[in-house]
Design goal:
With 479 residues, the protein is α/β, with parallel strands linked by helices. It is 41% helix and 21% strand. It has a 9-stranded mixed β-sheet, with helices on both faces. It is globular and about 70 Å long. Bound molecules: alpha-D-glucopyranose. The site of alpha-D-glucopyranose has 14 residues, from helix 1.
Amino acid sequence: MKIVMVASEARPFCKTGGLADVVYSLSKELAVLGEDVSIILPFYDSVRRQLVNEPLKKAASFNTHMSWRKQTVDVYQVKRDGINYFLIENRQYFERGHIYGDFDDGERFAFFAMAVKEFLLTKSLYPSIIHVHDWQAGMLPCLLKTDAICHKKFAKTKFVFTIHNPAFQGMMPKFTLGDFYNLSDDLFDNGSVRFNDQVSTLKAGIVYSDKITTVSPTHHLELLTPEGGMGLDTILRYREWDFCGILNGIDYLEFNPNSDQQIAMPYTEDKLVSAKKANRETLMRQFNLKNNSKGPLFSLVTRITWQKGFDIIFPAIEDLVNRGASIFMLGSGESQYEQRWEELRKKYPDRIGLYIGHSDALAHKVYAASDFFIMPSLFEPCGLGQMIAQRYGTLPIVRRTGGLKDSVICYNGNNAETSNGFGFDAYSVEEMKRTANYAYDVYQDKKLLHRLMKNAMLTDNSWQKSTQEYLKLYNQLIK
Ligand code: GLC
């Protein structure tokens, strides 16, 4: 089966969050199963830097018209892990030193969708499945289905749209339909792409795709409710028969504590205790932290954004430090939260370690060194950090929302045989503190602690199961 993924980021070339991991890992797994998989991405400057020493193959050259704008587009091709990557080049839109955050993001990704359409036509690439991810690519099914020529050429192609983050809805003023997409205002006036009186590319993805998925079964249910739907519940209920949740996995080759070259002491569950100790010592030394082994090490590896629960994290951090814990935080994002972390570090310099930025290598070290992983998200479509933590025998402390609920079996005093983390339901400082302190209490009971850590390490968070579910969905569509 020919499958084309369209997304704004994918490893190993560009990543700001879990989207990049998922697009890559799923594609890789599909390729292993013998499927013919391509990923179409923007050719960002960061991608170019990674490919400087590689002869690039030009896959196509064409013009893209966005009403009065005429752009010449070159598309380059590279192969990684059995996946064909097609990189859409446009220096003006994609060479900005970063992936998102510009005033014209709407226009930049509209260009991306328009160029992808043109590319598929130029190459006569009419795959069985076009799998589109999030708002940046959300308009593509609409572009191909409402255009008379494309409609015929893509008659056999089916569209799957995955919502990774419903908080980003691709909102743009009405005029952009014509100005960016060469589409008629009718699509706005008849409601097809209209959402809160603007154009929403996320809504367009939902309306025009054959199947819609999100990244966990619980988030699927949440999105169908007024409380958890972020305004999309009505339209998603309208598409309810074609909407489902498939839990993400993590890359078991990248995250394997037993063969991990990044960490001081690799380990299996039998060596867990001594390895955690050694990995912790190394991390503590590297960041000049006092290695008080009587207290646990709590960590976070995250995008620093309101979604991740920082409002309830900060008060709990001080509590834990005062009780004897150490904390390590790796991430970057919203500056008000970054500043609060800096203040906390100043207050407790030998107990709180901080790395504001992005480092895959350090992330591995942190997962391997820690006892607990803090992730009390306000909402979390899936979340990958909690699964990586489990793989390294680090017990996640989560708020039971979205994929966190689906992937963590919370210890409740009676389920030591099966549990692999801690959790609470209400989004409140009290619950966060209570649960973190409960985890701290368990830390004192080493037999229990190690039992739970082993359970976590043995949890199956691999991609195999989820890939089968995607394949089933694709096959249902093309039969
Ligand atoms: C988004 C979601 C996260 C999910 C990831 C990959 O970043 O916020 O929960 O794990 O996409 O699907």
